[in-house]
Amino acid sequence: MADIEGSYDDLFTAVPNALGALLDAGDTGGSVAVFVDGEPVVDVWGGFADKERTVPWGRDTLVGVFSVTKTMTALCALVLADRGELDVDAPVARYWPEFAAAGKEGVLVRHLLSHTAGLPDWEGPVEELYDWQAATARLAAQAPLWEPGSAAGYHSLTQGFLVGEVIRRVSGRSVGEFFAAEIAGPLGADFHLGLGPEHDHRVGPSVPPPSRDEDYAASAAGGPEVPATATAIRLRDGNSLAWRRAQIPAASGFGNARSVALVQSVLACAGTVDGVRVLSPEGCGRAVREQFSGDDLRLGMPMRWGLGYGLFGGTYGWGGWGGSLVMIDPDARMVVAYVTNQMREPGDDNRGLEIVMSAYDGVQGLRA
Description:
single chain; alpha+beta; Beta-lactamase; 7-stranded antiparallel β-sheet; 3-stranded antiparallel β-sheet; globular
């Protein structure tokens, strides 16, 4: 079996074994963390940080987690709502007046967080993603594809700019600045939105699926009712320096499993981790307030959306392009995070689910 480094409680042996099996099956590298009651019971990693397999994955290796980033941006909005500075039931235009253009006067903040705003597709050039003012101006001028709140369609890239601009208008700080000062900093979490050059040496670039290359693109699903017109994002974009430096709050976060699990433990632990209070218990409850249940027009499958999180029975969380994932179980006060640089074809990737299921063996032992 592949060498697995790190530490874990003996009750959770199934978790490092599951990671080792993925590496044995050909994955380049990855890390897994399981936090219970805000404390790590699993913090392991293995494999390599580079495609050539010359640089071992280390304790502090960082990778792009793509849409797992959405959970960090959502948490920023939940913090502002908890403080009474942001009303999720208010029109977006209350905070961002220019957004009322093109029939969007009735779009509410909660519509942005729940993928029901009708603005699912990024239609601008890839380069414009790196220009905050240009990206948000484009979205402010865009007309919704459906009556806001009446349907859901996964806002793959647009959600981060939409929620992020509201955060900026309310707080006076960019999402990355707000997240660093109010969440990551106090918790001591090594997660970044807008990665500085001082961290470049720790980054493990994403590796395409077998038989694919750097032109491998994220597919934008669409149906006959609302066909997709989104710009294709290629792996070479996600691996670029421009992507690292930019704040694309739906997709350009960099971290490892430890940092993802630590941050999202806020929600698993009623708002407080290791004595640091980020949210009130009531504020945590907002995340799981169901906003939509039905077929998602972009994902092409039934979905339940809360405020910034996908809802799955008694658990919630989200995954990213390429396989990274975070799952929150407030009843067990547990978070499971899996971060990898190895992409697989979307229809053939159950790795995150396998990791999550392996963690439940340990939780049952803890509660016995």
